[in-house]
Fold this sequence. Notes:
There is one protein chain. This protein has helices at 30-47, 51-54, and strands at 2-5, 12-21, 57-63, 69-71. The longest helix is centred in the middle third of the chain and has 18 residues, at 30-47. The model has no long low-confidence stretch (mean pLDDT 76). By secondary structure, it is α+β, with helices and mostly antiparallel strands. The chain binds zinc ion. Zinc ion binds next to loops.
Amino acid sequence: xxxxxxxxxxxxxxxxxxxxxxxxxxxxxxxxxxxxxxxxxxxxxxxxxxxxxxxxxxxxxxxxxxxxxxxxxxxxxxx
Length: 79
Ligand SMILES: [Zn+2]
């Protein structure tokens, strides 16, 4: 857990990291998900191994005091 400032309750307290899978833009069927997998695989080859899987998740930090969740996707690798 990381100690961070929470903008919701205004306290500096422990936050736990929560990782959620992003809703796929490719639809819900298995065939569509397979296409999403291939697309991620091939973009991963060009952009760099590992990034493809990172693109599919959102990182949140949840305040242990008020349970407010803050999206914590740091897109530094794209800058
Ligand atoms: Zn809070």
